[in-house]
Amino acid sequence: MARPERTEPVLYNRLAVLRAERNLSRQELAEALGVNYQTIGYLERSEYNPSLDLALRTAEYFGLPVEAVFSRRPFAPMSSQLYQTPPRLARTTP
Fold first, then answer.
1. What's the CA gap between 55 and 22, in Å, rounded?
2. Is-contact 18 68, C-beta < 8 A?
3. How many angstroms separate the CA atoms of 84 and 64, rounded?
């Protein structure tokens, strides 16, 4: 059976990364948020957008602003953010 085409915009998230950092299973996160564990999988795969209430509860659970967990644009890879080097300054000769 084919899935219906998605009509709402994709909401990107960092749930899998946040779960991994905290060594949480989908089941554990689901229980903490009061949802079914399958909902966490749907969210992680961007197959489902959370309600405003669920997005806020999720951000609160992780102790982060909601925009650190969910975004309308794809997130930059964490490695590029962690290991970003400052731009090199041009050397000038006196």
1. 18
2. no
3. 22
For residue 29, count other CB atoms closer than 10 A to its CB.
22
The pLDDT tens digits for 26-76 are: 999 999 999 999 999 999 999 999 999 999 999 999 999 999 999 999 988
CB atoms under 10 Å from CB of 57, counted, come to 17
**Structure tokens belonging to residue 47:** 């197959």
What is the Cα–Cα distance from 91 to 88, expressed in whole angstroms?
9
Report the CATH number at residue 16. 1.10.260.40
Choose between 56 and 79: higher pLDDT.
56
Q: What is residue 3's predicted lDDT score, i.e. its pLDDT?
A: 57
- Largest Cα span, the chain: 72
Interatomic CA distance for residues 58 and 76, integer angstroms? 20
**In the chain, how many domains are there?**
1
Determine, yes or no, domain membership for 18.
Answer: yes
